[in-house]
Write a structure and sequence with these properties.
By secondary structure, the chain is mainly alpha-helical. The chain is built from 5 helices and 2 strands.
Length: about 150
């Protein structure tokens, strides 16, 4: 019986200690976006390239916004003629796409509203598109770090 009390006390102490630790933000995707932002300068993109750029996303449109951003990254890759010869730039785009598909480790419900279509978002230049994507990821990070349940 005495050992059982110790096990319970240690378990409770461990859980309290773990729940007091700050939640680590996933900065890897932000790092990939920053790298893409600097390496895209080496690409030969047309001056008039415009990409749908989700910003100020409604919560019920988050899934569609991620899919829109991923599709526009493929457009960026095609329009800027990024090939395997541009290995660092292609790798940067692939890393961002993989990171976006992971959704920061949280499940985002699919969007079915016609108001969530990619075409509803403003088209921007490449720099603004990347800045808006970074803002999306930062928003997702804030959701992940503030909405996680705390074990007591």
């Amino acid at each position: 019986m005495f050992a059982l009390h110790w096990i319970c006390a240690l378990t409770l102490a461990l859980v309290s200690c773990l729940s007091a630790q700050p939640v680590k933000r996933d900065t890897e995707l932000l790092d990939h976006i920053s790298y893409l932002n600097t390496t895209i300068l080496n690409a030969t993109c047309p001056d008039d390239i415009r990409l749908y750029s989700p910003v100020d996303i409604r919560p019920d449109c988050m899934s569609s916004a991620w899919n829109c951003t991923i599709n526009e990254l493929f457009v960026l890759k095609y329009e800027c003629s990024i090939t395997k010869e541009d290995s660092t730039l292609e790798e940067a785009i692939v890393n961002v796409i993989i990171g976006l598909r992971k959704n920061g480790g949280i499940e985002i419900p699919p969007s079915s509203s016609p108001d969530c279509r990619c075409e509803k978002y403003k088209q921007t230049d490449v720099k603004q598109f990347l800045d808006n994507m970074k803002a999306q990821v930062e928003r997702l990070n804030s959701i992940v770090t503030t909405d996680r349940p705390v074990i007591m």
